[in-house]
Amino acid sequence: xxxxxxxxxxxxxxxxxxxxxxxxxxxxxxxxxxxxxxxxxxxxxxxxxxxxxxxxxxxxxxxxxxxxxxxxxxxxxxxxxxxxxxxxxxxxxxxxxxxxxxxxxxxxxxxxxxxxxxxxxxxxxxxxxxxxxxxxxxxxxxxxxxxxxxxxxxxxxxxxxxxxxxxxxxxxxxxxxxxxxxxxxxxxxxxxxxxxxxxxxxxxxxxxxxxxxxxxxx
Amino acid sequence: xxxxxxxxxxxxxxxxxxxxxxxxxxxxxxxxxxxxxxxxxxxxxxxxxxxxxxxxxxxxxxxxxxxxxxxxxxxxxxxxxxxxxxxxxxxxxxxxxxxxxxxxxxxxxxxxxxxxxxxxxxxxxxxxxxxxxxxxxxxxxxxxxxxxxxxxxxxxxxxxxxxxxxxxxxxxxxxxxxxxxxxxxxxxxxxxxxxxxxxxxxxxxx
Lengths: 218, 206
Prior knowledge:
The structure holds 2 protein chains of 2 kinds. By secondary structure, chain A is an all-alpha fold.
């Protein structure tokens, strides 16, 4: 399992690996929103948590179809499926690798980009906390979407449609934590819901993903 | 270890392609699969490797013993030869890649990115993967594609050595590998008739 994680991270960091794609997208969205909204710092700071969360979610979505498609094309998935590593474990590791290369940089970059959106000072901590709690769920659910559509040529559109509804609860509670944090309200309830969703999908989704992938490998 | 297949019926895309296949593959022997293109050799190998369920019939003695080599080698073009092999060695829980490097003469290529190798060199690397799996039953789908005569001899030698150590091999190929007393199974007579198992479907979402 460690070997797979190391390999996926190495591949992501080498040329053409797609590392930084999500981060660049996130950066572009948050830099451009103030231009689109106009010079109203009041309004910006009110919508900042939602924009940051939406940007992070779309940035995650952007890199999902690479997660399994490349391994499918060169036959690695077939060989992995016949290896001693259970597919459930392999997909969990791939989701983890995706989170480390996409989700984690987003979490770390969010406070910096929060400045651009005039995020109120108390909001920074909760923005980071909510993203750190929520982005793992995005990667794990994304692995399920990738497993469902692997082998479909240009399956990115289909995958987005399948995955977006599953992202909604994470987005609602994640953005709610960040919003409440920013205006100084109590964040406990949405934070617990967000953590619960993340833990739930981490526990259940790998089995669903592996089942979907087995069907697609036939 | 003895791979036994009895009255097996395999399907591709829900359409039965081969039926009534049966053979024994005891340790130390090789079985060559022959048949024209599209006759179902790959489907049979994929079924035996556990990548798809059979329509009917029994496969015994295959669980977790099979090293499968498909048309695609599963190589990452941005990893070096060494890293590619080491990855599969670690996945299969064996540490030593030296015998595999040696058997397929990859020593000079170790530091090269797999993406810069020629087709034949890639194939050699793909076949070297079999040695690091440490699995006793090799299932090879057209293993000699794009290999030159020298590399084919290298491969035949590796298979012979593997059989000598009590392994077994099931090889779909059209060329003569010089494996001596290998049995040959021509799949043509087992082709499924058009109406066999009509309506059978492996569609999971229906």
